[in-house]
Design brief:
Hypothetical protein af1432; single chain; 17 helices; mainly alpha; flat
Length: 335
């Protein structure tokens, strides 16, 4: 028996009846020969981990734009924290950990430079609109591997597309990632705000600290335990009304005191302007984009607006600044 088959057999015998089994996947758009070692979801996780778009996350903003200090989260460390939270929950609930991790690793691949400021800018100036969850799905289906995509399974792509609040993934593993994403950013954005002296622990409403915990780590522990307790042997992933309500109140507190804080956001207008200018420039000078993006237009018939969005959204913060500088900033010269 192949190693992959032994792992698949273990899934059938060990996982929850509500878990997604590798052998029952709805498959890939393009059929492939099976790996002798890895089931399909593990293979998807590996493809995402080795992708260029995943590596670029290390230089993309989470919340704090160009912070001074090495310990603030980036889009990559956010992704890793989502993955770890989700894997903890999946393991406790006997869900498919490989599927959970693959969705978590891929959920933000389509994010823009400068976080949600870049996303707002592209959504405003592109006539087709822009949403990072839809772009993440486009990255794995089309943009990676020079237009071939990663050919991931349906379940992973569904979880990536539907990880935001307004939608619901089809698998419980995707639902775990959807909740883990919120838990992760509420936890680590609070931690970063405390580190930056934007907030003090005593600024958090007393009733929220009483319900969730008096430290960031205790609040994280409370939320993860609550998901596990209320989802065990259950065909849905959920939190108790009390903890969910407190978590959403804490999220609202973060929007009022951190996400819209003038200190945190003082550079965002500049970032949005930079992204808009890059979009408008490459819409005019689209032939100056790398050849893999031009190929999308000439060979796949993709619209110029969409491909320019693809290129600009793929940029890291640092690369976007460098391109903007090269286009718009005057250079010294010698006769």
């Amino acid at each position: 028996m192949l190693i992959r088959e032994m792992v698949e057999q273990h899934e059938r015998e060990y996982l929850s009846p509500y878990a997604s089994l590798s052998v029952e996947s709805r498959g890939r758009d393009v059929e492939e020969e099976e790996c002798d070692i890895r089931p399909v979801f593990q293979r998807d996780r590996d493809r995402i981990l080795h992708s260029k778009s995943f590596r670029r996350l290390k230089d993309k903003t989470q919340v704090f734009l160009t912070p001074e200090g090495d310990h603030y989260r980036t889009r990559l460390t956010h992704t890793l924290e989502v993955s770890q939270n989700a894997r903890t929950i999946a393991k406790a609930l006997k869900m498919n950990e490989d599927l959970t991790e693959a969705i978590a690793m891929g959920h933000d691949l389509g994010h823009t430079p400068f976080g949600h400021a870049g996303e707002r800018a592209l959504n405003k100036c592109c006539m087709l609109g822009f949403k990072h969850n839809e772009q993440s799905k486009r990255v794995v289906e089309v943009l990676e591997k020079d237009g071939k995509g990663l050919n991931l399974t349906w379940e992973v792509r569904d979880g990536i597309l539907n990880h935001q609040t307004h939608s619901m993934p089809s698998t419980l593993e995707g639902q775990i990632v959807r909740l883990s994403d919120k838990i992760a950013y509420i936890h680590h954005d609070m931690d970063d705000a405390l580190r930056a002296n934007i907030l003090k622990e005593e600024d958090i409403p007393k009733e929220l600290r009483s319900t969730l915990g008096n430290t960031t780590n205790k609040r994280l522990d409370t939320m993860i335990h609550d998901v596990i307790t209320n989802s065990r042997d259950n065909p849905e992933i959920k939190m108790s009304d009390e903890i969910l309500g407190a978590m959403m109140d804490l999220r609202r507190f973060m929007f009022e005191n951190v996400y819209t804080n003038k200190i945190v956001k003082k550079e965002e207008a500049k970032a949005e302007n930079l992204v808009e200018n890059l979009y408008e420039y490459f819409l005019r000078e689209y032939r100056k984009m790398p050849k893999e993006y031009l190929w999308l237009m000439t060979e796949r018939g993709e619209s110029k607006d969409r491909v320019v969005c693809d290129y600009v959204s793929s940029m890291s913060d640092r690369y976007a600044v460098a391109v903007f500088d090269d286009i718009y900033m005057p250079k010294s010269w010698n006769l």
